[in-house]
Design a protein that fits this description.
The chain is α/β, with parallel strands linked by helices. It has one domain: HUPs (Rossmann fold, 3-Layer(aba) Sandwich), CATH 3.40.50. Helix content is 51%, strand content 13%. A 5-stranded parallel sheet has the order 3-2-1-4-5, with helices on both faces. α1 (14-25) packs parallel to α2, α1 packs across α6 and α4 (88-108) crosses α5. The longest helix is centred in the middle third of the chain and has 21 residues, at 88-108. The radius of gyration is 15 Å and the shape is globular. The structure holds iron/sulfur cluster (SF4). Iron/sulfur cluster binds at residues 38, 77, 85, 89-90, 93, 172-174, 176-177.
Length: 181
């Protein structure tokens, strides 16, 4: 049997991973990377990470856990704290997480990386893919462009994660998105 191409997939949360990583696994050998220093507070971060561990075990992919560099994330985004969701703060947030994912892919000697964040209705896949392409160019890696919202992806991920009994958050992740809800 032909070996699948390795890919590093940035994972934002368990419900999205349950649907999107299983799709990626049809074509790729997935290493997941949970790198989300945006998540506030730390208890919420740990809850989302624990749920992602369950999904990794269930789907059988390797999960690498990034550092919880919350202070670094705050410094990067503080200037845009009053921006609405999908604004400039979010673009910095995507770019930083994709940057760290590309760094990991390079460390592992894997030439392809992506993110599953495009499944969220609150995230613009075009913007994510543009930032991913730029990040790939910077590290001389290939970025896999996705839009997991297609084919009713978000609804399917909600149904799947409900069946699996996964925790599903009701805000994106950072303190600003928590306050906005
Ligand atoms: S709303 Fe979500 S994507 Fe935007 S900055 Fe906050 S955590 Fe990041």
């Amino acid at each position: 049997m032909e070996e699948k191409q390795p890919i590093v997939a940035h994972i934002c949360c368990a419900p999205d991973a349950l649907y999107a990583v299983s799709l990626l696994q049809d074509s790729y050998q997935v290493t997941g990377y949970f790198y989300n220093p945006n998540i506030h507070p730390v208890e919420e971060y740990e809850l989302r990470l624990n749920e992602t561990r369950r999904v990794a075990q269930h789907l059988g992919f390797k999960l690498i856990e990034g550092k919880y560099e919350a202070n670094r994330w705050q410094q990067l985004t503080a200037r845009f704290k009053d921006e609405p969701e999908k604004g400039r703060r979010c673009q910095i947030c995507y770019a930083w997480r994709l940057n760290q994912t590309a760094l990991l892919a390079r460390e592992l000697g894997i030439s392809l990386f992506t993110t599953i964040m495009s499944i969220s209705p609150w995230k613009n896949a075009g913007v994510l893919n543009r930032i991913g392409r730029m990040t790939g160019g910077k590290f001389r890696l290939e970025f896999l462009e996705t839009n997991f919202k297609k084919k009713d992806g978000f609804r399917k991920s909600v149904a799947l994660s409900k069946d699996f009994g996964l925790y599903r958050q009701n805000y994106c992740g950072c303190i600003y998105s928590q306050q906005a809800r």
